[in-house]
Outer membrane protein OmpA-like peptidoglycan-associated protein
Amino acid sequence: MQLHHCRLFVLLLLITGPVLAQSDIEGSSDHPLLTRYPESIITWYETEKYFEYNLATGPITGYRYIAERDTVAGQVYRIFYDLPSTKEEVSIGEVYIDYKRAMEQAGMTILAEGLVPDGGGNKIGSPQWIGIALASQQPPGGSPASKLFAGTATSGGTFTLIGRLSQPEGTTYVVIYGERHSKDLIGYLVDIIEVASAETGRVSLDPDYLAGELESKGTVSIYGIEFDFDSATLRESSYPVLEQIAAYLTQHPDKNLYVVGHTDMPGTLEYNRTLSHDRAAAVVQALENDHGIATGRLLPDGVAFLSPKSTNATEDGRALNRRVELVLRPN
């Protein structure tokens, strides 16, 4: 998504000081929409052409459960910053207030916010809340960003800020999680999602992408497998996507998968469960018959509309819900 220059908001933080970028990891940069807190250094950076981001905006409502969630999808940028500082030099509250003020001045709608100075409880922005909110999209273990889940001084405080910027050119979400990791270090993760349609997923779909998603998450949603209306007949437009799945399976002969069909809401549960299963079975049959994938490596199933990615109240939401998922099976 290209942001039109005349509507581009560059968020300038209010505390002045030099920005030290010379120690940033290679290939990283601030997002054009959002600068860093002064003295911060990028220690982890990742961008993906199409990513389904699970956005939690409400309080904890059950055991490790947040009910108010939605899926926003598109180009994602994930940037983790280290801010070397003692409590006397910079407090976690100062970082939180500066980012909140900058987001508001840029015209963003704040969807969720929380500053927990003592790092306790389960309020929005607390360590427990952040862990649940990020459970399905934690940064890789061992990466500098994983320290967000292993603070040694959570009593130094944590925070969360989630904002949405709506423009004629498109919608962008900004999500920030921060904590005082130790007496000498603040760490904060900035996730920026530039919303785009599900079809963008075809760009990222290749064997390496599939391998990365399945290795890190155990599942991957596939968009671009299309069927005739109300049918399990595959359209020709699906063939390039099936070729990429077959390439992954050929390159990873030790991997076996469930192929799971998902539908949107219209129709009865029984009808959609049958349709979703039949569509998954059609995918398995095509991979076996047309691409030589051994029988038994793929098992089809269908769950109808019981596991939505988004709301069924809008066409964009229904498009996200109509999908095929690949799920790793234990060997």
User: Anything to note?
Assistant: The domain at 198-329 is CATH 3.30.1330.60 (60s Ribosomal Protein L30; Chain: A;). The two ends are 40 Å apart (CA to CA). The CA atoms of residues 62 and 109 lie 27 Å apart. The first strand starts at residue 41 and ends at 56.
